[in-house]
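To whoever is covering the structure queue this week,

Two jobs came back overnight. Logging them here so there's a record in the thread.

Job A:
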Amino acid sequence: MADDMFRAPIHRGMRTLDRNAFRKTVPLKAARIFDNKNIFKVRSELERSKDALQQDRMGSVHPDPDPELAKTGKKCILLRTEIRSSIATSTTQANSQSESWPHSSTLDELVTQQLISVIPFELQLEYKYWTYHDIISSILSEDEQGEIPSGFSQVGHVAHLNLRDEYLKYKSLIAEILIDKNPGVSTVINKIDDVGEENEYRTFRYEVLAGPDDLNVTISEENCTFKFDYSKVYWNSRLNTEHRRLVTMFNEGDVVCDVMAGIGPFAVPAGKKGVFVWANDLNPDSFTSLQDAVTRNKVTDYVRPFNEDGRKFIRTATAELATTDHKIELRSKSSKKDPTAKPQVLRTIHQPKSFQHFVLNLPASAITFLPSFIGLYLPSVREHLPADFELPIVHVYCFSTKSDDNVGEGIKICEEISRQIGFEMRPARIGEEKDGGVEVWDVRDVAPKKRMFCASFRLPREIAFREA
């Protein structure tokens, strides 16, 4: 009964949002506090005895319902919904009729001590009280309650929906409610095709359901700020954990080749921890936003942006790095005692001549880029490298099916990697086998039968040194 009392009014089939329709009066009882200095004492005792109302998103202390008493600052404490019988408001009457409410020794004692009286209280609930789920549940028909559309990706001020066909008739209403219930959202869009269908840059077509058609957003991730046009570049807020996971593998002074860098969710945080990153993306708009992120987050000494074809970039970047000299001098801060003193060089970090990691984050097709690693370190490149240089770890993202243990998926992914590079690869942990070991990491579900993985392996010598 208590749940029903606080449920939003039912308006099945509503198509145009009428906020005034979501008003409700809930009849309760309240403990009128005679002296405000006793508010804390009374509330604590009623909460301890569970006589005070405990309701989500609502405090128990309210102004007295009597306008004249409310003007003087008098308060009352709402009581649990079971206490609803008719009880007189005066202390004397309340004492004589204490048996008319469900027995509560705490409530009786507070009345006896003349600290409170029990009074009727009409609680007014309005649209702003209920959550998105409360409101939309009261609008959808009974047979549409199975999978209520509630999930969305938020990118800056933009909420990105992917509505199923059966809910499109409610799309404008859903969007309005989302904006109302999420203060950081001012624009709601709905995706109308799959990512990558429109072009190779992983962008998508969309329709604006509510708010201005403004997709220029600013977001923060891993203490880095990114500013971009969401309609022109790829971004997925749900990959934050994966970005962090991979960046933690990079050590200060490493050099990383980020082949499909996008706007820099791997590259920029890595640069902040002192990792050199050669970051590339084919999309000119992503490249522009990447340049902005590098400057905005002050990692220009560590991160170099490129706008090239990824397959070629794997090879050209490897060759160029082998002949590039770059170093960072870490200096002491200026002295407050002696402002004229020059900062001292504390240590120097030299950029390595070969990459420690390659990142290929284009799960729909990244595996097809692997043939670019065949013969990556030809004699013309190796002559510029130390004889004992370590071959890089390749992190390639891909899609596959899903199962409880991912064993079958791991085997399939390794088989495809093997086919692409012409070398047998097997599921294993990094370092477990000298050549051919692949760690297959479960990143996230992307559809009911589709999962995103990251396959990481050290580039086999036979592939790295193979000559055409």
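Job B:
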Amino acid sequence: MKFVESVRASLTQVMEDERAQFLGEDVLDPYGGAFKVSAGLSSKYPDRVHTTPISEGAIIGVATGMAMRGLRPVAEIMFGDFLTLCADQIVNHATKFAAMYNGKVKVPMIVRSPVGAGRGYGPTHSQSLEKMFLGTPHLRVIAPSHAHDPGELLAQAYTAGGVTLFLEHKMLYPLELFAGSNLISRKVGAGAFPSVTLCNHDRRSPCDIILVGFGGSSRLFVPALELLAAEEIRASAVLCAEIGAMSGDLLVECRQAERILVVDEASAGFNWSSEVVAFLYDQLVPNLRHPIGRLNSECDIIPTSRAQEEVAIVTTAKIIEKVWGMLK
């Protein structure tokens, strides 16, 4: 199953709940959304799939109202860049109401959005802006990789309730879910949103370096681990799913690491990787033998030119270059 098919199948399952509502721009058939995630949904549930005007603030405002009245909306924001247009509704309204009214008001809603670069969509359709929402009280932020089952995580978020920001890297949509190659894959932890670890070696042997990332990093980590294995470098990758909170599973996986490299496609500075590095230093200082490495996209706009985009964003080649520098 491909990443996009997993999300679509989960949405179809979610919509079997008569409280569920789906809303967004251009989501009706035959178009089915910019990335075809909602294809077939409006034909099957014509009364509960709603196409909206081009107003992201209105989409989330309406979804919040629906949730407060007992419905279970899933709202699609066509590109993650446009989350800035509905930040007020998310940060100052939806996430606050349950606490403001001592739990008497509930806002069970999911905000889905494709994020990330790699398709030449340019400065306003290619960003990874999740760092603008991390640390927001009562906001769950989920970013599945293709080593996860994204549909399963979406279903878990729907069951869990509350406000969830569900970020899908657009480069993962056409990929088949990772089912193993020369790498060993396993879930880490027993929570609703577990991390996944990929290894290019027998876990009983020492690990030279651990890569840490989330979401679209998986498409870079898989070839990186295979390239490192060819050079007899024992490497693992931890792919987090819930990025709005620090996971104890991450700490367990990194505790015995010789070296740690945290990779984050967001622009450099004040982002998820910053918080992960600070968290790991706080917990692992007595055990660390090498400084923790970080790799981010450039702190600049993302060019439309594919060649220039490659220079600006994180790539597998940059990960390998960074690893070699850390191994020297």
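Note for Job B: The chain has a mean pLDDT of 94.

Please reply-all if you pick these up so we don't duplicate work.
Q.
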